[in-house]
Amino acid sequence: MLIQGGLVYTNGAFVERDIETEGGVIRSLGTGLEGDDVFDARGFVVVPGFVNAHTHLSMSLLRGAGDDMPLHSWLNDRIWPLEASLSYEDCYWGSLFGIVEMLKTGTTCFNDMYFHMDATIRAVKEAGIRAAITHAVIDLGDEKKAQTELQESSRIHRMCRNEKRISYMMGPHAPYTCSEAFLLQIKEYARAHGIKTHIHLSETRKEVEDMEQEHSMTPAGYLDSLSFLDEETICAHGVHLTPEDIKLLSSRGCSIVHCPQSNLKLSSGIAPLPQMRDASINIALGTDGAASNNSLSMIQETKCMALIHKLQGATEVPASTAFSIATRGGGKALGLPVGELAPGYNADMAFIDASHFSMRPSHSLISNLVYSLQEEAIRHVMVDGTFVLRDRELTMVDEKSITEKASEHANALVELIG
Ligand SMILES: [Zn+2]
Fold it and tell me: Distance, CA 19 to ligand 1 centroid (Å)?
């Protein structure tokens, strides 16, 4: 396909370019390119799709089912009892429901960590989005559970192997929910198969204090003592990292997924993003689940990130940095050719109506993208060279029936628990 005449964001600048794609991949960018299958992109700002680098997609069913609580009581008293009743069908409709929101807000790739991942894989295949899939595992020291979860991880991993738009990662939930032996087995599997590991890290002060009491180490120090940290490790949150933790994570080449809105809502704190960036850590951005956000919109997440760090100074996280973290940072963390519009990258992009009020005046388009963009301005979204959103309508799945079915499942779930 030839995407002609758009104002394309590439290499940190907006330039009028044609984009040639083939087999779902960007072949070239140029001017005056010719081809048969032409899409007229004049009047659009064309940007790489957002990469939501940490979420729990099916939790979109639990949006609003437990608000205004701190993380540990939110998990223990509300979320874990609800999650215990989740079925395959719940997760299938919950995943589709979450994908609707992501595609309509310009996200083309996400990194999920949850259960019933076969249901999420089915939803991803049907809706046309790109995903990294992580089957979340917890053993709490139960060796039998550890073995069952490793087998399930391996089963889901096999399901992802031949899927063009789906990759797989190992997903130990957190250092405080997985035993040392289990963490070692998980890392061994990941290294043997050349895949990444995705883990929550230092999300709350309590997590850090408990770990220091039990092991006299921070969670990052503890993982490093198990030789767990490496370039293939993606740590979600990192709210309560010490300066030594930051140095350590930088030296091991880990990526950190910043989830500012979830951290604010659960009163967990604000991750030290400027310090992490100073230490050259690759930073990605994630919404976390919709039960703790309560949205999956990366438009909102990106703006929130750019704003909260201004508490440290008005020049922290300027718009271009924020947009780069939300796109390129995610692609780098996930190890996928996404988050940039350049030859060799996947043809995953959003077409933004340049005449929409939220994109005008056009003194600074990057500023508009981060500080004023409204989702209605995102007219079309392409994943893997295929339009999955066209004129604000999803092309592969039906938004109305998904919203109705997801609401039915969500209501039944909450009624069951009371
Ligand atoms: Zn999370």
Answer: 35
